[in-house]
TrEMBL record:
Protein name (database record): PAS domain-containing protein
Organism: Devosia limi DSM 17137
InterPro entries in alphabetical order: DUF1457
Length: 218
């Protein structure tokens, strides 16, 4: 995790969930994440069965030069990446993974900057299917950010952190294949004997182009 706001939100989420796969919406205390709040958002499942912004921090809205509340999350992404993002969202809401995404944001005049995003499951009325907690933060903040709105964004990398009680071989197979196909890895498939590597300083296993970190509480 490259940005302090990402790590702050993840550490807070991880701490308040306890032994659960996800904390409850009512557990979130904004005063405990002041340093990350401006980049934090909550998504909700809307009437069209897509996720839209229920809340969005001020810095995040400034980056897009518009209020994000009520706007579709899916439509922020380039059309070629929307299926991949939908796959990631299902991994978060249904399988309780944490998704770390890097993406390139592009303005109408083709200036670009890189962002880091995190998506985490959140319970609402006993279910994790209708809410997501997340943050998006520019890794570098060019002078024009907040003046030239981000109009298009493309995924450049991702990581999935699975809960402690999930078997990697059972859970990651469909995600790796689906996301790999959407991102130009049509021939990629996960292997049962993946090579260990280090990601963010902890041990991870590679499945196709995904690096899977065992143990969401690491």
């Amino acid at each position: 995790m490259q940005k302090a706001s990402t790590k702050t939100l993840y550490d807070y989420w991880n701490g308040i969930r306890g032994s659960r796969s996800a904390p409850d919406r009512k557990d979130i205390d904004p005063t405990r994440i002041r340093d990350a709040l401006a980049n934090t958002f909550i998504l909700e499942l809307d009437e069209s069965e897509r996720f839209s912004f229920r809340l969005a921090g001020s810095h995040l809205c400034t980056s897009y030069c518009r209020e994000l509340k009520g706007r579709s999350f899916s439509t922020l992404w380039h059309e070629r990446d929307r299926d991949a993002m939908d796959t990631l969202i299902r991994a978060v809401t249904e399988d309780h993974a944490v998704a770390l995404v890097t993406f390139q944001g592009t303005t109408a005049i083709h200036t670009k900057t890189t962002f880091e995003a995190i998506l985490m499951p959140l319970r609402h009325n006993g279910s994790t299917h209708t809410r997501l907690l997340g943050a998006m933060t520019a890794i570098d903040e060019p002078y024009w950010l907040g003046v030239q709105p981000i109009m298009e964004q493309r995924i450049t990398g991702l990581r999935l952190i699975w809960p402690d009680d999930v078997t990697m071989e059972d859970m990651v197979r469909d995600v790796a294949v689906n996301v790999g196909s959407d991102m130009g890895f049509a021939g990629a498939s996960p292997t049962a004997h993946s090579t260990p590597e280090t990601v963010y300083g902890v041990s991870a296993r590679r499945y196709a182009h995904l690096a899977v970190i065992d143990g969401g509480r690491s």
